[in-house]
Amino acid sequence: MALHPFNGTMPRLDPTAWVAPGAQVIGDVEMGAGASVWYNVVVRGDVMPIRIGARSNIQDGSIVHVTRGLAATTIGDDVLVGHMAIIHGCTLMDRSFVGLGAIVMDGCVIEPEGMLGAGALLSPGKRIGPRELWLGRPAKLVRLLDDAEVARNAAGAAGYVALARLHRESGEDAR
Predict the structure, then answer these.
(1) Which value, in Å, is the radius of gyration of the alpha carbons in the chain?
(2) What average pLDDT does this structure show over 126-150?
């Protein structure tokens, strides 16, 4: 089973949320409508809460955790978190994007439609503004996203909602 209680608290998932076989969701975790957690993801709400908004997706191999006593992790609606990302004690606001293999550290905020590119490292306490694209290790502001890029990210989030529904309907659900 992919859902595990911790300290008496069981993860709470909207009936339309989907958790892939092999993913592990632990403790004080809430997932909104149409949200998805993909293969081999770990979402560990053991010492602080984790909230994953509606239609957001955490892609294969990613880790979502918290900072004990300091920072919960909040992921808004329609957020894309790419494969093998690490999300730790931070806030990803609605329609934000974290690229493949990127790391978002304690106390960071990515504002609506902000994007952390693939492989980037957002060091503690940094804030990505609306439509800003940050790249590098450590990540730095590169430029603003144009309308086409924002639309492509929105389409990506919608595509994952549809794909998760197909997986769920095919009987692949770890609950």
Answers:
(1) 15
(2) 98
- The architecture of the domain spanning 3-169 is 3 Solenoid (2.160)
Query: Tell me: the pLDDT tens digits for 51-92?
Result: 999 999 999 999 999 998 888 999 999 999 999 999 999 999
Tell me the whole-structure pTM to 2 decimals.
0.96
pLDDT value of position 64: 98
State the DSSP H helix or E strand holding residue 157, giving kind and residue range, or none if neither.
Answer: helix 147-169
Strand blocks (E) in the chain: 3-4, 12-13, 18-19, 24-31, 36-37, 42-52, 57-58, 63-65, 73-75, 80-81, 86-88, 91-92, 97-98, 103-104, 109-110, 115-116, 121-122, 127-128, 132-135, 140-144
Pairing type for strands 140-144 and 132-135 reads antiparallel
- For 11, counting Cβ atoms within 10 Å of its Cβ (0-12 exposed, 13-18 middle, 19+ buried), the class is buried
The structural domains of the chain, with segments of one domain joined by +, span: 3-169
3-state SS, residue 124: coil
172 has a pLDDT exceeding 80: no
